[in-house]
Specification:
It is built from six helices and no strands. By secondary structure, the protein is mainly α.
Amino acid sequence: MKDIYFDKEKTGYRLAVLFREKILGNFADTPVPVLDGREIQRWWFVIERMLDRDGRNPETVKEVIIYSQLNDFWRTIVVNPDSLRKHFDKMRLQLRKDLGEDKPNNGPSTYDSPKTARNKKRQELQRALGRRVEPRRYRKDE
């Protein structure tokens, strides 16, 4: 039987452990890999592929992992690194929308109503992602 190799300093391993913890935070009885077993090694390798082959930024992967387990829809779909990798772009775009980062710079916004509810949701998401929370500034034409 082959020995299992772990480099716990690798970004992919740390992200695999974070993903495991976030899943357990939502579903305590979900089968997830043990921290020193073959399955966590497989999770690590899939996330390393996201970083190396797909060219993903580690900080963006971390944010999408956190978002995937905060969002009521995605947490039921993204339960392993393969589904994380498969749906990564969709979740990243949804995260940007929820943070208000994908709005066009010209013209009034049509999807920002009610502004206070969206602003509150955006601020809660920023806190969960460890970002600095800034009050929303609205343009005069909005």
